[in-house]
Amino acid sequence: MSDFSGGARSKHPQAWIDLIVATDFALANVKLSYPPRYASRLRAYGRATIEEPGLPGSTSIGRASLVSPRELVDTIIHEELHHRLWTRAMRGSQRAWRKIADLAVEEEYVEEVTRRFLRLQDHLKLTGNK
């Protein structure tokens, strides 16, 4: 992994995001809906933007997510889960529609699935199965 110590992560945030996406074991088999892009003005950790006619969807990463590789992976997975939930809803899944109909329910679901994903990745790494 390249050296992003000593503030290089802050000076070149997109390069660091790209490096983590390319090399982190937790993301190795994850096909992202949109490449994560650094958004310097975003105060939140991240934001998923739904695709609309004439407008592409996106995954934006805020500065708060750059504190560690783990936090960045957590944010990328979290935002990816929003994209996947929205896609399932648009394809007609009533379960997905019920989740996205209430922002609090959607966020709780995405947080729980993100935690489960990261726990599984930790387990796989510890047991050498990944």
Write up this protein.
By secondary structure, this protein is mainly alpha-helical. It has one domain. 53% of the residues lie in helices and 8% in strands. The chain has helices at residues 8-11, 13-23, 69-90, 94-100, 103-127, and strands at 36-38, 46-49, 58-61. It has a 3-stranded mixed beta sheet.
Report a brief summary of the structure:
With 130 residues, this protein is mainly α. It has 5 helices and 3 strands, in the order ααβββααα.
Give descriptors for this structure:
3 strands; mainly alpha; 5 helices
Topology record:
Blueprint (H helix, E strand, L loop, with lengths): L7 H4 L1 H11 L12 E3 L7 E4 L8 E4 L7 H22 L3 H7 L2 H25 L3
Parallel strand pairs: 1-3
Antiparallel strand pairs: 2-3
Helix pairs in contact: 3-4, 3-5
Structural class: mainly alpha
Mean pLDDT: 91
The low-confidence runs, each spanning 5 or more residues with pLDDT under 50, are none
Overall radius of gyration? 15 Å
Dominant shape: globular
Question: Please, how many domains?
Answer: 1
Major sheet: arrangement of strands: 1-3-2
Largest sheet: number of strands, sense, barrel closure:
3 strands, mixed
